[in-house]
Structures are given as C-alpha cells and as structure tokens.
Amino acid sequence: MNDKNLEKAIHALNSSDKTIRRTACESINKAQKQNRISRTVLQEVNNHVHTIYSFSPYSPSAAAFKAWEAGLTIVGSVDHDSISASREMKEASALIGIASTTGFELRVSFKQTPFNDKKINNPDSKGIVYMVIHGVPLNAIEKVKDFLLPVQKMRNERNRKQVEALNSSLKMSGLPLLDFDKDVVPLSHSHDGGSITERHILFALAKNLYNHLKTQEKVVDFLQNTLSIEIPEVLVSRLLDTTNEHFLYDLLGLFKGAYLEKFFIQPNEDEILDVKTVVDFALSIGAIPSYAYLGDIATSVTGDKKAEQFEDAYLDELVAYLSSLGFPAITYMPPRNTVEQMRRLQALCKKHNLMEISGVDINSSRQSFNCPELLQPEAIHLIDSAWALVAHELLVDYKSEWGLFHKNNPISTKTLDQRIAIYADFGKKMDPFNPSSIITIATKTLEGDK
Fold this sequence. Notes:
By secondary structure, this protein is of the alpha/beta class. About 45% of the residues lie in helices and about 10% in strands. The chain has three domains: about 1-30, no CATH class; about 45-145 and about 270-445, Metal-dependent hydrolases (TIM Barrel); about 150-190 and about 195-260, no CATH class. It has helices spanning about 5-10, 20-35, 60-70, 85-95, 140-170, 180-185, 200-215, 215-225, 235-240, 245-260, 275-285, 315-325, 340-350, 380-400, 415-430, 435-445; strands at about 45-50, 75-80, 100-110, 130-135, 275, 290, 330, 355-360. Strands 1, 2, 3, 4, 5, 6, 7 and 8 form an eight-stranded mixed beta sheet that branches.
C-alpha cells in the first residue's frame, strides 16, 4: 500500500484514544468513496469477535476493519462480562461499510438445574455455563452496563486472589512476581467498562517471562525444565521462531491449556448469576440469549483446550431443558465441531424451535477473521441467521415488538425459519453505510402484515 495517509489511518484504528479511532474510520470511509481502497466481498460472517474490552489485540474499530478487509459481510463484537465495545462497533462498522451486531458473553450458574454436577460447556468449572447474549439493541447498552457492573467487581476480587495464587506457584522459579495493579490492569480497558479475565493474567505472565529471560530459546527451556510444561512440537517451533509476531499470544495459548489450573479459583455465586436471571434479563431488553454449544473435544483447534468430554453425552436432555428455560437460540462454531456434532445439534434445534447462530471467537492476532467452514452445506444456513440477527438488533431498537421473538411481532404466526428468512432479507437489502435504512425496508413488510 503506497497511500501513506491511508496506512496511517488503518494503524490509528487501534489507538488508545476513541476520538482518534473514529477519525480513522472516517478516513477509511473517505478512501472508499475516492476508490483508494476496496475489497473482495465474500459470503462469510463472524458474530463473535472479542475486543480490547475483554481480551483481544483489536479495538472495536480495528475489529470492524479487519473483518471488512477479510471480505466479511457482517462483524459482531462479543466481550466477556462487558458491553462497552457495542457503541463503537456499531458506529465504526457503519463508517467502514460492514453490517454489525453486538453482544456479550457471560458465565452463568446451572447449580439449580439437573446438570449442576457436570462440566457442561466450561472447561474450568462444573455447573457453570458460558452463554452469549446476542443482538443487544443500542437503547439497552446502559442497562447492560449496570447489570454487569457487580459481576465485574466480584470477578476482579477473584482476579486479585488468582494473581496471589499464581505468584505462590512461581515463587521458587526465580521469576519476578506479578503485581495485579501494575502488570495486569493496564493490559485491560477496565477504566472504560472493560472486563479483566484470566487471559489478561496469563498475558501478563507471558510478558513477564519474556522480559525477564530476554530470548525465546530461554523461554522454551524455562517452560520445559523449570515449569515442567509439556509443549507440543509444532508449538515449540513457533515459540523458537524469532520472526514470530504472535509469540506472546502463542505463549498465552500454551498457558491457558497447561498452567491455568495452577492458580484458577472457582468463582462463587456472587459472581456467577443464575441462568434464569440472565435469560429473563436478556429477553427483557430485546436481546437473544443463546447457549454456547461446545461439544466433546478430540483435538483443540485453538490449542488452548484439552481433549475432553462435555455436553454430548446428554445433549438431548440439555437442549430440551434450555428450551424450557426460555432460551430462543443456540450458538456454535462450525470450525470447532464435526459434521456429526453439527447435524445432531441442528436436529435438536429444529425439534425445539431454536434459532441457530454462528460465531468463531477471535481473541488472538494469530487467528483469521475468515470462516470458510460456513460455506459448507452443513453450515451455510447460518449466514442467513446472521443477517436475521443484524436485522433483529436494529429493528428491536426501533420498536420492541419488531424483535424476532416478540409475541406481538407482526409476523409472529409464521414459522421460525420463515421469520429468519424474512429478517435475513431485510438485513441483506439495507445499506451497511446507513443501517437505519432497514427501518424503511422492514416497514413495508411488517406494517403490511398487521
């Protein structure tokens, strides 16, 4: 790229200053109008990109541009225990010219359910489940922030204790100890509503390790011979590669799978809200609460999960129970599941009238924004679901009864598949530079069906 001003704008998308990031988005908008930048548009979408408001190398603006650059038609931000990326993601996407959707991810308690003693979809805890609240409308952002604030506070109290536990496990290693306030907090955007997760702690550990030992070879030796961590051969090669720009993220991934258990403290009931409380809250703001299917793991695609069994052994009973709790959707990641797993899950969603939502969580610089698996016959219908999600989020913000699952939706008598198809059509027809254009498009159908 020879356009220095454009290069500067793209680099500024990850500025620590929101105003600078917005100006950068405006510069990219201008460059498109002047035909100084273009892309090849694909069918692919991704509704589950993490940002700096939980753990990620990307600001919401940078994530929107990376998705646009990869040819995606839809980008969605999802952060752990935080909705603070939402407003910027919506604004940046509209300037850059890509459809967007926003939400948040939360661990919820299944302690009062028949599955309380099982590892369901959470590798770290029994009776605690990951769920994603998709399609959060703009008018609900402040309500969500207030809802999540106590969770963030309790999580940070546990985070401090986890850093203390990590230091205890490392005190004989010769490594400098971590300081939560000086080493971990600055890696986050907790000052602006972001959350602090175990990944922040592990990233601080990775930085601390490299800064202390100075070379990648010494890091690998330390991991193997002092911390007794078994490193897969392919990862050893990456960690020893002095040109590896993803080194710290690769190191974080290794720690996530091999060292987290050394200091992880189980969250208590003050931090983990009851699943029914969260489902009811999400529905009350017009969002779509979704169970995040994991499935039994044979080989971890991302390298940060062990081979382990999760909900597949009792999936039929679980999906029926999710439906009884009021979940309207299940979200899953096609690259992480086998065709057999997806077909079984899809049949259960059909049986219980649940929407299927896709999304591949992006939280490392090594990961690609593309998801060609969505183009396979077993998954291509998820593209229409993503467009319906975009439409839902915009329309429920305009009029609550226009939510995809609202009982008074003008097309509520149609089947779920029919409603998804109609909403997907709305989304595809809207101008991504002017998302509010969907109101006019949808009005023709929804007002006409009254």
